[in-house]
Amino acid sequence: MKANKLYIVLCFALLIAAGCKKSELEQQVPDQLTVDNFWTNKDRALSGLSAAYSQLEGFVGWDNYVEARSVREFYREDYVVPGADAFNYPWWTEHYNFEFTSGNYAIDLLWRENYKGINFSNQVIENAGKMSSTAIDDASKKQIIAEAKFLRAYYHFKLLNNFSRVIIRDKVPTSDADLSKPFSSRAEVYEFILKDIKEAEPDLPLRSERPATELGRVTKGAAQAYLGKVYLYRAGDDKSNATAYYTEAKTWLEKVIVSKQYILDPDFGNMFNGVTKNSTESVFELQQTADVSSGANYRSYLSDWVAASELGGYGEIYGTPRLLTEMLKEGKISNGNYDPRVFQTMYFKDAYFNDPANPRVYGSTYNATFGATAQTIAFRKWIPATPDRIGVSNAINVPLMRYADVLLMYAEVLNEQNNTDAIKYVNDVRKRANLPDAAGGNKQAVFNQIVHERVMEFTLEGSRFYDLRRWDLLGQNMQAAGRRFTADKAFYPTPLKEVNNNPQAR
Question: Cα–Cα distance between 497 and 100 in angstroms, integer?
């Protein structure tokens, strides 16, 4: 970063009105908030923490959350295809075609917004840590710092999953030398992430200890679940030490399970259409609200981006026949019908959606909506429960970590350890869908079942690309999908702006 960026980097830009000092020689306005006089009480510390939360998934803006996040998280999956309008935006389709370069706008936003979140987190950690006992009670101080450490780890983990090389930012920069930093090794970044979450975990409350007004803030369960996930991903990244990482992953995921803080939501579909928020299954969730009385607007048009044009949306993404084949592969095993999760994930040509006595496509049938000869596979996940919400901003929460993920990750770890109990946790997830137990079998058979269950559970939740990569199945699945993937596109390149502005990032 260039020296002239320093002034901007040192400022809170969202919920904090603190000013910034360029030089001690500058005259200060007496009533101006500065970094020195902002951190004076618990409410101010919580405002700083709110700024740190604000960067989750780039939710602060249309470009990064609706467009850039969607093309990064969804278009790189092998089971989707862009809609016709998407081809008007080369910076979108470059992700689908794996033709992106370091100058791609979505890549730049991913880097920038996560490092902004890291900077806000660092400000909380450093400045709340300096607050006196008269300014804030010890318990609140510890918890706020713990949340900020978790968030700092979350942002670093997001970067590490997307870029092969990452710069650790562990303090608020105060000089040009602080801004120009070299890359750390992947091992160093993993260790930094794990250290932060482990330090945070003891000072975080259980979900049941959070009042309703604090839903969405980090809990002990979230820290434990992400420790399990980070170790699991590290096992895929560093297979020579995978055995030790699986052991650690098992320890932390097991803590979430035995805590009894979470149960699977019996209504799968309502977690993704705005009806249910912070369900019993939610471990960590991006909050959205239709209440703008506070002046904040935590709503988005993601549902319009995902919804098929035939349903009144923009029609930017559709499912593929390969996805439908995978989701229907077990046949009609649920009271004479397919796995109910397929119907709650997408619309497709089937008797279920063509029942005139119970029209389920926004009060119509599939044929009436898409045409009798159509074979369109349109997503139902992330679009509102009623059609009147298409075309307007929506407040659909986004679960970032669900208990179903904890159970399936735990099953995966047990299977890697040759523990035959693995299938039990797969079947725990299947019971929510009222499905018969999967038979299990040898290690490969159980793994195959886990792969299938992750498709049924997490389609269009941004995990498929990363799952395939850590399983070393990315190349063959992209080939099967007819995609233009090459191994050098498994990670994003360092953004061009960082390369230009940071001499040590070249």
Answer: 15
